[in-house]
Structures are given as structure tokens and as C-alpha cells.
Design goal:
330 residues; alpha+beta; 2 domains; 15 helices; globular; binds iron/sulfur cluster
Length: 330
């Protein structure tokens, strides 16, 4: 059996959903796609130019001969009610830096196996060594849809991990995933900030995920704050509305520690916490907001509460418009 097949079988035995191997040159086309996006959005270069380093892997790792790519589905975990519509599900089930995560254990076990085979590897849990979704696409493990997310048969709820290796290898998967239906633009229409303004385009500067799950300063724009809705950390709107994700999320398993954390994730609870507690309870899991910016948790929580309350009053006001008194009567 070839070494590629060996690795794939090991990945399968570990419960990894998909595994493929590409040559570093397979990433070169990524830069072109990146520049297409940069040209389409305002200040695109300031957000995306840094990612061009992900295209030419050999520039940073001259010894690179292949890239092993694996995909792990996280769409099988129960999500606490207090977190629904407030936290991106990928962050709630994030395996990165989480020693208890079953996905991380599988990744480490495969890495150990690569080393046992005498293969030199390099990887990075964050921010990654290459453009993960593009690498997985190039490995034939799935497709990237108009909302920019990578999809397998299990929908978009997957995390991609990759290792650069010093071994010449190649193993492409194949899939029979259909393209997005002609004329479908549900993800674009639903994006609360219009950050997703056209297929395969996304303005990072106005994406709810970026605005909430980062150390960026608050926008100070009332309209954008309103558009953030009830989101506190991340946003799943363009994935939740996608018909290709319909019925794909299953509540089969508990992610370690998530249900226990559940109550603390509600915005009212965050407002009641002191910063020491936020650092202890939330920061290790949601690491995009660092210690110097813990105030952002309170800002996001209060913004979510204000938007919720505006929506409640909106409903009450519309109910009044249809009560038994005629309009205009005094
Ligand atoms: S994550 Fe939310 S804000 Fe960002 S592009 Fe998708 S729908 Fe728009
Ligand atoms: S909502 Fe429609 S256009 Fe958007 S990613 Fe899903 S299938 Fe494609």
C-alpha cells in the first residue's frame, strides 16, 4: 500500500472525516482568488493582503513537498440555549488549544503517526500555515460555496487542519457535491451587515464575526451596532440560512465543558461578571478577545441586550397598531 493510502486509512481509523494530500503548488491559485476579492471590497488590501503568504508555501518552508489536509465535522454537538443566535457554533466547539476536545486528540494522534512514518511536519493551530478551505478544496474533499464556507456532505460545519510535510505525496479525494443552486442568494440576502455583498466576496471590516470576535475597536456607528443584533461572539447567519446545511446539524454529543458553561454565556450573566471571572471562564475558549480587551465582552453583551429589547418593543408597538381602537381616534 502507498504511504498516502496508509495515512488516509489511519485518519479514517481515528474518526477523522476526510483526508487528502496536495502538492504545495496546488495552493498557488489561491493568491489570484484573494486579489479578486481584495479588488471588490473597500480597503480590501488592508484586510487581506497579509493572507497572500498562504499561497506560496515554499517561500517560507523551502523544504515543503506536500500538504496533508484533514477535515473534521463539529456539527454533531448540542448547543446550549443561552448561546444560540449569540455565538458562532465553530467557536463554541473550537478544538484549537482545547486539550479536552475529541477533534484535537484525533489531530494530534494523526500527527504522531506522520512522525512515526519518519515524516517531518509543521502546523499551526492558529492562524494556520496555509489557506485551509482552499487547501481542502484542492484536495478534492469538498467545495467552497458562495458564502465562502467549505462544505462536505455534512454541510459547512467542519474545521480544516493541515500539515506541511517534507515527503513527496499526493492523494486527491472526490465528491459528488452539487454546486449552489442557480440563482440562490439566500446567504447574501440574509447577511445582517451586507458584508457578504456578492458570491465569494466578504468584507471583513463589516462582518459580524470580525466585529464581535476580535480586539478591533467598536465601530461607533449606531446602524452597525443595530445590525449586530443579538450576536455576542461570531455570527452564523450565512450558514444557518443555507439550504445545503438543512438538516445537517445533529445534537448527538456534548462538547466537553460546553453545557456547563451554558448559563455564563447569556448577556445578562456577562454583564454581572467581573473581569477576573471573564478572563477565567470565557477567555480560554474564546481567545480572539485578549486580556487587554475584556471590556469588549461587556460592550457586546450590552449591545445584544439593547437590540433584543428594541425588537421586543417593536413587537409591542406593532401589536398596538392592531388593537380594538381605530387609528386616528382621540
Ligand atoms: S458571518 Fe454573518 S456578517 Fe459575516 S458574512 Fe456571514 S452573515 Fe454576514
Ligand atoms: S445560501 Fe445558496 S448561494 Fe449561499 S452558499 Fe448556500 S446554496 Fe450557495
Amino acid at each position: 500500500m502507498s504511504i498516502e493510502k496508509d495515512i488516509q486509512q489511519k485518519a479514517e481509523a481515528l474518526g477523522i472525516d476526510k483526508c487528502g494530500i496536495i502538492r504545495p503548488e496546488a495552493m498557488l491559485g489561491y493568491e489570484e482568488r484573494l486579489w479578486e476579492r481584495i479588488r471588490k471590497i473597500p480597503r480590501g488590501e488592508s484586510y487581506y493582503a497579509n493572507f497572500t503568504r498562504f499561497a506560496d508555501i515554499k517561500r517560507i518552508y523551502p523544504w515543503a513537498r506536500s500538504i496533508v489536509v484533514v477535515v473534521l465535522n463539529y456539527g454533531h454537538y448540542r448547543i446550549p440555549e443561552s448561546a444560540q443566535g449569540r455565538y458562532g457554533k465553530s467557536y463554541l466547539t473550537d478544538s484549537r488549544f482545547n486539550p479536552d476536545s475529541p477533534e484535537r486528540k484525533k489531530i494530534f494522534a494523526l500527527e504522531k503517526y506522520l512522525h512515526e512514518l519518519g515524516i517531518r511536519t509543521e502546523t499551526s493551530e492558529h492562524p494556520g500555515l496555509t489557506a485551509m478551505r482552499w487547501a481542502a478544496r484542492q484536495a478534492g474533499l469538498g467545495i467552497i460555496r458562495r458564502n465562502n464556507f467549505f462544505y462536505t456532505q455534512k454541510g459547512s460545519w467542519s474545521r480544516v487542519t493541515a500539515w506541511i510535510t517534507d515527503k513527496e505525496m499526493e492523494l486527491k479525494g472526490d465528491h459528488s457535491l452539487p454546486e449552489c443552486p442557480a440563482g440562490c442568494d439566500r446567504c447574501i440576502a440574509a447577511c445582517p451587515t451586507k458584508s457578504l455583498s456578492s458570491p465569494y466576496t466578504m468584507n471583513m471590516g463589516t462582518c459580524v464575526s470580525r466585529l464581535t470576535a476580535s480586539n478591533d475597536p467598536p465601530s461607533g456607528d449606531c446602524e452597525i451596532n443595530r445590525q449586530l443584533g443579538g450576536w455576542i461572539y461570531g455570527c452564523d447567519v450565512c450558514q444557518d440560512v443555507c439550504p445545503m446545511n438543512r438538516g445537517k446539524w445533529t445534537d448527538d454529543d456534548d462538547f466537553p465543558g460546553l453545557m456547563e458553561l451554558g448559563e455564563s454565556l447569556a448577556p445578562e450573566k456577562i454583564l454581572a461578571m467581573d473581569y477576573e471571572k471573564i478572563a477565567r471562564k470565557l477567555m480560554p475558549k474564546f481567545f480572539y478577545i485578549d486580556k487587554e480587551h475584556l471590556w469588549k465582552w461587556k460592550l457586546n453583551a450590552i449591545n445584544a441586550i439593547l437590540n433584543d429589547s428594541a425588537n421586543i418593543h417593536k413587537e409591542r408597538i406593532s401589536a398596538m397598531l392592531t388593537d380594538e381602537y381605530e387609528r386616528g381616534e382621540t
